[in-house]
Amino acid sequence: MFNKILLATDGSEHSSRAINQAIKMVSPYKDQVKIDLIYAVDGDTSKSDVLKYGDSHTATIKRKEKFMETIQEIESKGVKSDIILLHGDPAEEIIEYANNHEYDCVVIGSRGRNKFQTLILGSVSHKLVKYIQSPVIVVK
Asked: The whole model's pTM is what?
């Protein structure tokens, strides 16, 4: 049984599938589980958000608001939840955070790229599977 899950998200449809799967995984044990959502903001997105919202403090608030509905959905199922925001390369930040905290499992959605796209572009989920020291579940 997984008691402490790190759920990597970016707000995409792929992340939604991962969120739904994580909730299904823990539903029999919901009162014993905590799911932490983690969102890593890359430099370009961070700059864009600051320009859009006027300052970094407001941008951070807007990012948290983006995931409040997900937090509420998870908590409505009886599971404790929190959001963690990081800045930097998503794969690197999530790997470092996961390896420095004690998680039973990390869950991430897959974008479904083909082999060529993954080879050329890389893949956050692939990097997480390779470098995180706890089990990683990739949801298609």
From this structure: 0.88
